[in-house]
Automatic annotation (TrEMBL):
<keyword id="KW-0288">FMN</keyword>
<keyword id="KW-0285">Flavoprotein</keyword>
<dbReference type="GO" id="GO:0004497">
    <property type="term" value="F:monooxygenase activity"/>
</dbReference>
<keyword id="KW-0503">Monooxygenase</keyword>
<dbReference type="GO" id="GO:0016705">
    <property type="term" value="F:oxidoreductase activity, acting on paired donors, with incorporation or reduction of molecular oxygen"/>
</dbReference>
<protein>
    <submittedName>
        <fullName>Pristinamycin IIA synthase subunit A,FMN-dependent oxidoreductase, nitrilotriacetate monooxygenase family</fullName>
    </submittedName>
</protein>
<dbReference type="InterPro" id="IPR036661">
    <property type="entry name" value="Luciferase-like_sf"/>
</dbReference>
<dbReference type="InterPro" id="IPR051260">
    <property type="entry name" value="Diverse_substr_monoxygenases"/>
</dbReference>
<keyword id="KW-0560">Oxidoreductase</keyword>
Length: 84
């Protein structure tokens, strides 16, 4: 468990990632939704400054990025009936 200022936590995460090379991170909460609000408002900006969190994302939908396909399924696809 890490605690401290956003900079201290970001420094510790950066060191841990460099030393162990994990491919992800589970973030537990102490209080909902405040724990996640604090991560978003305090830790994410610090990790962005460390270049460990993206400052911007490439354009396009998740489907386009994941499959290299169109943003929407074709009209003949069964999922097309569920568009809104």
């Amino acid at each position: 468990m890490l605690s401290g200022s956003p900079r201290t936590v970001a420094d510790a995460l950066e060191h841990w990632f460099d030393a162990t090379g994990p491919d992800g991170l589970d973030v537990p909460y102490l209080t909902l939704p405040d724990s996640y609000r604090q991560i978003a408002s305090l830790l994410v900006p610090e990790l962005t400054r460390h270049r460990r969190y993206p400052g911007a994302y490439a354009p396009g939908s998740f489907r386009e990025k994941l499959f290299g396909a169109a943003a929407r399924v074709p009209d003949h696809h069964i999922a097309a009936q569920y568009r809104w």
